[in-house]
Every structure is written in C-alpha cells, then in structure tokens.
C-alpha cells in the first residue's frame, strides 16, 4: 500500500470517529452547547482540556522552533506549562464556583457592568481570533502535506471539517471528540519519538535519550549536535544567545496569557463541582506532561537527523547531491514536502550539491569561498513542517507517517474547535443574549452561536492565508493579548474587592490597546504584510519583541485599573460579599448555574 493511501486511511478513520462522536453527543440545549450540561468526569475533562490546550503550536510548531533555535526557544516549554499551573491554582476552581457559562459573563457580573462584559467580549474575540489563525495555519500545513496539495487548499478543507463537528456538536460534542483527539495526538507524537530515540541513542524514552549517548559516535547526543551546528556556522544549540530580559518577559507573557485563555477556562465550567475542577486541572497536567517532556528530544533529534542527511559524509566532506535527493528513497520526503511550497532548495553554484550552512556566519565565509559555495542552498525549511516530516526524515514505517498525519490534524482541530466555541459563546451568549436581545429564545441563541462560529471560521481562514509568523509565534501573540487584557481582570475580580467597574473597564481597554499597537507596529496593521514600522529583530523598546509585550500590557492593565478605581466610586458591598463568597471553599459543590 502506498503512503498516500495509508495517510488517507489514518486521517479518514480519525475524522469519521470525530464526526461520529459529534453527532452522537450533539448539543440539544444551551447548557449542553456551552458547558456540556456540567456533567463531565474530571479525568475525561482533563483529557479533553489537554487536547484543547495542546494545539498545532504544541504538536506541530513548538519542536520545530526549538530544533532550529535551541535553548533560547525553551521559553515556549517553560511559559506554557508554568501558565497552566497558574490557571489551575489561581483561577479555575473559583471561576467554576461562580457558576457561569463564560469568562465574559463572570467579568460582567463581578464588575456589575454590561460595559465590562462587552469589553471582555471584545478582548476575548481579539485574542481568540489571533489564536485560531495559528490553528488554521497548522491545519493547512498538515492537510497540504498528507493530501499532497498546496497548503492553501489544505486550509480550506480543514476549515470545512472543523465547521462540521464544532458547529453541530457544541461543547458536549467537542468534549468527547477532544478525548478521542488526545488519544490520537499523544500516540502520534510519542511513537515516532520512541523510534527515533532508539535509532540515535538506543534509549526508548525520548526525554532520557536527549541526555544519552549518540550510538554512531559514542558522544553525548547534545555534544554531537552542538558540534555539527557550530561546524555549519549556526549558534551553539545548548547555549543562550538572545536577550535574557526578553526571554524572561516572553516566558511571563506566555504564563499569564495561558491563565487568561477563555477556551481553556471554559473547560472548567463543564464539571459538576468545584472540587472536580481542581481534579481536572491535576489530570490535565499529567496528560500535558506526556507531550511536553518529549518535545525537547523531538526537536534536538530532528535537527541532528536533518544536519546529517544534508551532510552524509560529515561536515568536512561533500554535501548531499541533487541526484541523491532525486533518486535515494531516504530523501523522498524532500520532494514530497516541496510540493506543499514549505520546503525548497536550489543548486546556486551549479556543482550538483546542496550545501546547507549559515551563510551569514562570518566564521564560515573563508571556508565557503575556498569551496566555491554561493550561499545556503536549502533555501526554505518552514519550521512548522518538522514534526510532521520527522518520521519520514528518520525513515520510519509508512503506518507511523500516517499516524502522525492524523495526530497533527487532531491537535490543530481540537484547539480550533475550543476556540470557536469560546468565540461563538461570546457573541451569542454575552453579546446578543446578555446585551442586545435579552429575551432571545434558547433555540435562537443556539442558532446565533452556530452562525457566529461559522463567521469566525471564515475570518480565521482569510487571516490564516497570510499569518504573522510560524504557528507557535502566531499563538504567542494571542497569549500576549490574553495576558494584557483578560488575565488581570480575572485576577482582580477574584482576589481584590477594591477594583470597581470603571477600573476594570479602563484597565482592560488600556492593556488591550497598548499591546495591539505594539504588535501591529511590528507585525503590520491587522497583520497585513509590509505595513509594519519595526521588526522583532529591531524592536521599538530595546530587546522587547512583540511576542513578549503581553506582560507589559498586563502591568499597564493592573496599574490603570487601580488608579481609576481609586479615583471613582467604591465597589458596592454586595459585590464585595460576592467576591468573598467565591473564595470560600465551603459549599463548593453548590455552584449556581446561570445564564
């Protein structure tokens, strides 16, 4: 059976499973659409939350960014995992006890203001739409490769699949679909990693293999990798090279952004009791750890494999020949990925070889001139293809490649569905039902939720055609926006009775606006290419890149909220009593459902 047919079988079977589950668990009421009827078991919810959380950025993009940068991109690991701990400890149980359907509803009630709820909806929509761009980007890449079509058509096909099961299933259908997707994605991520770890180190546990010995040379794997990449003019893999200030700000931005993500917080509204929200958080950490402990090994081992494939005779020998790429089955993956437009090479000096090296390295200029090299000839290697191409690069069996196809799509689709639910609930429940048409019937509200979800998919596809970076970088922007706007409002809403409605509204708007402005100045206005005034290589504020600005936006939010609250009318006593009651653990099982 050829590889294309195997890919179709694995992807087709997984999609049939997802859509079947969505039909079986179809939401019939607003409670089931928004919160799965609040009847999800903590272990089930933990698995669904892990799938919701481990997006295309985690599955497809993160290991690729680590692979081609090394230590400096370990911020993604530290920020995302640390942020989830913050969410589990500081926010999830209290928000569940409050007993509402959405984050915006909590903010509206806590700050006793329809305006606060409306501003929260705006913040949620901006962060979620930016986030879903990264997911649709991952969907397009995965479909493009495994259907062997251009990534543009992959994006359109993927958006139709998301529409099919997210629009009809609602939170109830998405919950059980995400359980299946977690099983698919974690199996697809770990099996190739185990194979590759065994190949390179003889160790079946990738996280241990990362610190093991390279079977070919007997050297520690990371020492071997450092040697190869520095020989090719790249920076040392295991050393820090970027700004420490930016790295700290970026990590913090990812952490607090994680704790402010509406689509993840919504998952904790689906369990029966507050204690179940805590257990859900614990189980989610276990399920997330399986992938996050494996990702650094996947990145390092893939970088080593690629470097050795491009220089099969060692870095002092001859580079791989064009003929070998075209005829050797070990290199078949390169021509397959070339069809997607995400990988390319060019024999610039006409010597029949493809030299892969850092042509911007001053140390390598003399060697390049002596050998007649005309620049790096691996002209394009999109970081987002690394994990999906990894089994092919390592020459693993065809069924593993098909499994990874299904896993990459599961990761992107599960988070896309969660984000679309957050967007649709913000529009239908918070904006229409909560603000504009309070007498809307339940049937009309469900219809509005599905229509707003469909509109969000269209917007995400249009923006996904020209994304502002790789999937993980695009997602990092969304985390910055959530960090600057939603997280401070939630923290102050739960832990401070001093913040009033005026302070909360002013803080959210200030945090959102300054962060959006900083991002647009660096990534282009509304992400339109060529309209930016600065770049992340040369930022406006010293070392602070656009992906790291979220924590500064959050500080602005906190500062403005406290100043404005101090200058305006004090929080009413009944709201102070409400805040105190939310933080008291007694009676936790009696969370009140509300609309």
UniProtKB/TrEMBL annotation:
Entry's localization field: Membrane
PANTHER family, per database record: NA(+):SOLUTE SYMPORTER (SSF FAMILY) (PTHR48086:SF5), SODIUM/PROLINE SYMPORTER-RELATED (PTHR48086)
InterPro entries xrefs: Na/Glc_symporter_sf, Na/solute_symporter, Na/solute_symporter_CS, Na/solute_symporter_VC_2705, Sodium:Solute_Symporter
Keyword presence, Chaperone: no
Protein name: Sodium:solute symporter family protein
Keywords assigned: Cell membrane, Ion transport, Membrane, Sodium, Sodium transport, Symport, Transmembrane, Transmembrane helix, Transport
Domain of life, source organism: Bacteria
Membrane-crossing residue ranges in chain numbering: 6-25, 77-95, 116-134, 146-167, 179-200, 247-269, 281-302, 399-427, 448-465, 471-495, 502-521, 541-564
Membrane protein topology class: Multi-pass membrane protein
Family (UniProt): Belongs to the sodium:solute symporter (SSF) (TC 2.A.21) family.
Pfam families: SSF
Classification via NCBIfam families: Na_symport_lg (TIGR03648)
């Amino acid at each position: 059976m050829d590889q294309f047919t195997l890919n179709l079988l694995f992807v087709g079977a997984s999609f049939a499973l997802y859509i079947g589950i969505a039909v079986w668990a179809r939401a019939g009421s607003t409670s089931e659409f928004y919160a799965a009827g609040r009847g999800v078991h903590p272990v089930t919810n933990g698995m669904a939350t892990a799938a919701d959380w481990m997006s295309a950025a985690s599955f497809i993009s993160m290991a690729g960014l680590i692979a081609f940068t090394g230590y400096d991109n370990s911020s993604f690991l530290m920020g995302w995992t640390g942020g989830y701990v913050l969410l589990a400890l500081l926010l999830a149980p209290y928000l569940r006890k409050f007993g509402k359907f959405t984050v915006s509803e909590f903010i509206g009630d806590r700050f006793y203001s329809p305006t606060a709820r409306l501003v929260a909806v705006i913040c949620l929509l901006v962060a979620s739409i930016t986030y879903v761009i990264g997911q649709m980007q991952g969907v397009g890449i995965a479909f493009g490769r495994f259907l062997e079509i251009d990534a543009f058509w992959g994006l359109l096909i993927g958006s139709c699949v998301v529409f099919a099961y997210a629009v009809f299933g609602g939170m109830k259908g998405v919950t059980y679909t995400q359980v299946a997707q977690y099983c698919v994605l974690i199996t697809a991520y770990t099996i190739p990693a185990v194979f590759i770890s065994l190949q390179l180190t003889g160790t079946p546990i990738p996280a241990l293999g990362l610190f093991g010995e390279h079977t070919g040379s007997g050297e520690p794997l990371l020492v071997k990798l450092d040697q190869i990449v520095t020989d090719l003019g790249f920076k040392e893999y295991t050393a820090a090279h970027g700004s420490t200030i930016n790295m700290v700000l970026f990590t913090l931005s990812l952490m607090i952004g994680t704790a402010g993500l509406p689509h993840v917080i919504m998952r904790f509204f689906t369990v029966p009791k507050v204690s179940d929200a805590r257990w859900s958080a614990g189980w989610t950490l276990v399920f997330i750890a399986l992938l996050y402990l494996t990702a650094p090994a996947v990145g390092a081992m893939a970088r080593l494999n690629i470097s050795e494939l491009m220089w099969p005779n060692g870095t002092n020998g001859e580079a791989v020949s064009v003929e070998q790429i075209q005829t050797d089955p070990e290199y078949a993956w390169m021509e397959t990925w070339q069809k997607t437009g995400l990988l390319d090479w060019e024999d610039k000096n006409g010597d029949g070889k493809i030299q892969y090296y850092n042509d911007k390295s001053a140390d390598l200029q003399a060697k390049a001139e002596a050998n007649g090299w005309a620049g790096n000839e691996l002209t394009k290697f999109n970081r987002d293809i690394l994990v999906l191409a990894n089994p092919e690069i390592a020459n693993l069996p065809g069924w593993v490649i098909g499994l990874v196809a299904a896993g990459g799509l599961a990761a992107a689709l599960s988070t896309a569905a969660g984000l679309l639910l957050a967007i649709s609930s913000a529009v239908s429940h918070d904006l229409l039902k909560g603000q504009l048409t309070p007498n809307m019937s339940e049937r009309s509200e469900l219809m509005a939720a599905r229509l707003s979800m469909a509109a969000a998919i269209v917007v995400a596809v249009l923006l996904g055609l020209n994304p502002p970076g790789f999937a993980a970088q695009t997602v990092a922007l969304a985390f910055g926006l959530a960090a600057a706007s939603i997280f401070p409002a939630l923290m102050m809403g739960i832990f401070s009775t001093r913040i009033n409605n005026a302070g909360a509204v002013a803080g959210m708007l200030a945090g959102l606006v300054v962060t959006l402005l900083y991002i647009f100045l660096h990534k282009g206005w509304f992400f339109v290419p060529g309209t930016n005034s600065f770049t992340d290589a040369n930022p406006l504020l010293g070392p602070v890149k656009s992906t790291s600005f979220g924590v500064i936006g959050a500080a602005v939010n906190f500062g403005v909220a406290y100043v404005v609250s101090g200058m305006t009318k004090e929080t009413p006593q009944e709201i102070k009593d409400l805040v105190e009651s939310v933080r008291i653990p007694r009676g936790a099982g009696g969370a009140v459902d509300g609309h």
